[in-house]
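In this section we walk through a basic example: taking a raw amino acid sequence and producing a predicted 3D structure, encoded as discrete structure tokens. The instruction is simple. Fold the sequence below.
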Amino acid sequence: QVQLVESGGGLVQAGGSLRLSCAASGRTFGRYATAWFRRRPGKQREFVAGISKSGGNTVYADSVKGRFSISRDDANNTVWLQMNRLKPEDMGVYYCAVAGDLVYTADWRYEYWGQGTQVTVSS
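The resulting token sequence is shown next.
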């Protein structure tokens, strides 16, 4: 069992930055690949970024490449999502989730989910 808690969301102007964190308890992050998904208003939940169990592989949605960066600190059971040059279309609820060894872009692959953190981007 893994419990995930996201934080770091908030209101930011377009062009600004936020850093989301996902803290795990229970089984440690080091056993899992971890990903961030988001649900934008009126849209289905979508993959944003993921990092493999080893940390050696990262995957990004095309819409965030070059602006977002995912990283992990297994010693502190935390995964980060650094979001730069935010756009109004990045607004939504961001969730972290864990799977097995590899990063998947399909949400059904992920077993454990956090409750989400709201990101609001004003234009």
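Looking at the output, two observations stand out. The chain is about 0% helix and 50% strand. The chain has a mean pLDDT of 94. In the next section we compare this with other chains.
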